[in-house]
């Protein structure tokens, strides 16, 4: 029996997640705009990048491992991608999933013509669907969950491309923000709960779609609105747009972690400034768990806005007690523990003269595996800090994410293994506190969490998953049938 999960990485740790998508239709050099937009979305995925364009007759694709700048900075690379329609993708994956064949956009020649798709999110029943499709004779070219969508579209019996796509996505569980290209135009859609973000803008006569508004800013497009949860927007080459809500209007559950960490602070998300939300989390945190200290120090980068809020609310001065190297990217989204450890060390350094002899409040947006917090507390002590108090701008991350963010399985999450007191001891801080779940909801403009009908997906904090997790359930069943555990998941 083959026990290897086709979508799992080598150590069976996690699915590969969190990406950025960008699409433009109706612009003279669509691929150039696409490369620029992807550059602004680089924080969402640093492992691989791809762009597919269409010139009215042919589709062209260029995909590569690494950053946008490494793959799309020359005129020649853009010249390979002619046409007025293009879609691109920046990918964040983990060990084993980094191969070129998984890099998006994925493309296939279907009976109805070319079909390209760029996907941010994760399909929580992809394995299940893939097995069914393989049994029917489908031949997969990648190990990406996204390819399932292509096969479902290819085998749908509905007549129009939109109907085929809706038919396919009815079978899909989990999170998807998609940009699709066919010879007739572009379509963009979000899953019925709107778990992953997607926005729409206008650039002259062209329509632009992107994971975040920063990508619209960078290409000079005007932000129009978000794609609504469950909405499909089709755009033709003459600029005609059509909006459809084939799944009705279920209560949305967008990812609250986008506000905490993933999105750039200069993006507008769910009609809110991410920067303002992060600052407001810091304010809540100061109200809930104030501590006497000399200075408030952010853990750069994403701890900065919350630290500003904490400082303003508490009256404790904000200081840059840690300086980051700009040549090391996000450590959370790096593929292996050893790389993450090394990156955290190279990334941060104590501002020794400032920290020496001081009692400090460190603010970070989240503790996931504890790699960063452990190292930073030690760094502050080595630099002579008198007391180190740690405050976190999210509740404890105690559950895995199956919707497109690479939070690992529960057993590798610090909060999955320990309570707050034990975590405090582990990171060797003098005190540790997290913002409450209601505090987080207040910071994004609500009165608190509505437990009967939560307004966001917050499963990594609460364990309350808004969709079925078929692959996970299947794997647990398989685990229980065997005399030894297989790739434990939680
Ligand atoms: O507990 P851990 O497993 O270390 O993960 C949590 C850390 O990872 C993220 O930072 P990251 O370095 O990815 O990016 P940033 O520069 O945007 O803060 C996050 O902001 C925390 O600092
Ligand atoms: N995780 C993402 O958002 C990327 C899309 C898809 N799940 C992939 O692995 O390529
Ligand atoms: S589980 Fe957490 S990270 Fe994943 S979609 Fe839900 S809120 Fe976002
Ligand atoms: Mg960080």
TrEMBL record:
Catalytic activity of the protein: 5-phospho-beta-D-ribosylamine + L-glutamate + diphosphate = 5-phospho-alpha-D-ribose 1-diphosphate + L-glutamine + H2O
Iron-sulfur as UniProt keyword: yes
Cell wall biogenesis/degradation in keyword set: no
The protein's annotated pathway: Purine metabolism; IMP biosynthesis via de novo pathway; N(1)-(5-phospho-D-ribosyl)glycinamide from 5-phospho-alpha-D-ribose 1-diphosphate: step 1/2
InterPro entries registered for this protein in UniProt: GATase_2_dom, Ntn_hydrolases_N, PRTase-like, PRTase_dom, PurF, PurF_N
Cofactor names: Mg(2+); [4Fe-4S] cluster
Record note on cofactor: Binds 1 Mg(2+) ion per subunit.
EC numbers: 2.4.2.14
One of the GO BP terms on file: 'de novo' IMP biosynthetic process
Keywords: 4Fe-4S, Glutamine amidotransferase, Glycosyltransferase, Iron, Iron-sulfur, Magnesium, Metal-binding, Purine biosynthesis, Transferase
Domain Glutamine amidotransferase type-2, first and last residues per copy: 19-238
Family: In the C-terminal section; belongs to the purine/pyrimidine phosphoribosyltransferase family.
HAMAP family: PurF
Protein name: Amidophosphoribosyltransferase
Organism: Croceibacterium mercuriale
